[in-house]
Amino acid sequence: MINKQKLIELDALKTPLDEYVYVRHKKRGTKYHIEMFVKNATNERDGETLVIYSDENWDNTWAREINEFCDGRFEIID
Fold this sequence. Notes:
The chain has helices spanning 4-12, 66-69; strands spanning 21-25, 31-39, 49-55, 61-65, 74-77.
């Protein structure tokens, strides 16, 4: 499981990540890298942190709520 506090600390730096954080989806085994953190601007979720991540080939980029990202679906890899 990904340590949510570690991601929050990275987000608190308010700077681009110097190095990508690489993660793997546990069920599928697919590898991704975290690119950045952004704040949600929708009325219902205003200010909530989103994790922006891409697949290995940069073909697709997704945004996922930080709570969902840290719920056990992903693990950090080296």
